[in-house]
Amino acid sequence: MKKIKQRLKTYKYQFDFARTIFKDKSFYQIHQVSKMEGRKKSSRTEIISFLLELIEGETYLEIGVRNPNDNFNKIKCKNKYSVDPGIEFKENPVDYKITSDAFFKEMHAKNPDFPFNKKFDVIFIDGLHLADQVEKDILNSLAFIKDYGFVVLHDCNPPTEFHARESFNFRNSPARGFWNGTTWKAFYKFRHHNELYSICFDTDWGVGVISKTKYPGLNNLTLPIENAYFEFNSLHNNRKRYLNLKNLESWRKTIK
């Protein structure tokens, strides 16, 4: 009986959502934007794999794994490490079942049970998608990335302000369960570091890449920060420049 009630509740939600889509033009448009983003071909997995191949990388770290079949298990690399506290995926078959803060704390302390003596070729950040946490993850990753390596971030290019909401649980919106959080704010902030170079690929909700090395196509922004209050409308109107938004296939031709 409980399952039947839950199913009926789900059907009602889906029906109400469909009815809202057809009644509200803007609601429908944002729904279509989500569908279009999901159809983009290149994935974070493909980008990470290409970067590892580009620098012949042998060490890979993934922060925020959830189900490893989504990305981690698809990455081919000699030495792979995974970190996730297991909040969203109970099985949590990762190397370190802790938060990224706890992991990097042990790395800085040179705990012998952690790969403290390693500098990673690529670190992929896909943990808590809130700007303050993403900023901490970027700073910690930069301390353990090789000079020619890459820090990669997911969800850097939210298509609408509803996708860029702070609360994941608020789903009664045109974006529904699609959530990029405020990752873009941290990425945009680090675009203003003179010693760092970055690019964001216009696929898979925005895959941002940061490096200490100036590879072709990677650049930075000058200070002071133009969008000082991190307003979404300002991002929307200037996203190509703010994020250094590029097409992956076009960039690959310039760097090979």
How would you describe this protein?
With 256 residues, the chain is an alpha/beta fold. 38% of the residues lie in helices and 14% in strands. It has 8 helices and 7 strands; from the N terminus they run H-H-H-E-E-H-E-H-E-H-E-E-H-E-H. The chain has helices spanning 2-23, 25-39, 44-54, 100-108, 131-143, 183-190, 232-243, 248-255, and strands at residues 59-63, 79-83, 120-125, 145-153, 197-201, 207-211, 245-246. The protein has a 7-stranded mixed β-sheet with strand order 2-1-3-4-6-5-7, with helices on both faces. Strand 5 and strand 6 (207-211) form a beta hairpin. The chain is globular, with a radius of gyration of 19 Å. The termini are far apart. The model has no long low-confidence stretch (mean pLDDT 92).
Task: Characterize this entry briefly.
The protein is of the alpha/beta class.
Notable characteristics:
about 40% helix, alpha/beta, about 260 residues
Which helices and strands, and how do they pair?
Blueprint: H1 2-23, H2 25-39, H3 44-54, E1 59-63, E2 79-83, H4 100-108, E3 120-125, H5 131-143, E4 145-153, H6 183-190, E5 197-201, E6 207-211, H7 232-243, E7 245-246, H8 248-255
Parallel strand pairs: 1-2, 1-3, 3-4, 5-7
Antiparallel strand pairs: 4-6, 5-6
Stretches with pLDDT under 50, minimum 5 residues: none
Question: Beta-strand percentage?
Answer: 5-15%
**Order of helices and strands, N to C?**
HHHEEHEHEHEEHEH
Mean pLDDT: 92
What's the story with the biggest beta sheet?
A: 7 strands, mixed
Which structural class should the secondary elements be placed in?
alpha/beta
For the largest sheet, list the strands in their spatial order: 2-1-3-4-6-5-7
Broad shape: globular
- CA radius of gyration is 19 Å
